[in-house]
Specification:
Elements: H1 2-26, H2 30-59
Helix pairs in contact: 1-2
């Protein structure tokens, strides 16, 4: 479970960093900003899936 928690924490941090980069990049290059935001969303979705997996493991 600790490994899963570490992955969740890392993905969450990655999503936040990508989101912040997207905001800054979109001021200069809209396409790059959208691409970074898409990557942030993907990381967030993967993070949420891992959180659900962790919850299922804790319930079992």
């Amino acid at each position: 479970m600790e490994e899963l928690e570490a992955k969740i924490k890392a993905l969450s941090k990655k999503a936040a960093e990508l989101s912040n980069q997207a905001v800054e990049a979109s001021k200069i290059d809209r396409k790059l900003g959208l691409d970074l935001m898409r990557q942030a969303r993907d990381a967030s979705v993967e993070c949420q899936a891992l959180i659900q997996k962790l919850k299922r493991q804790q319930a079992a």
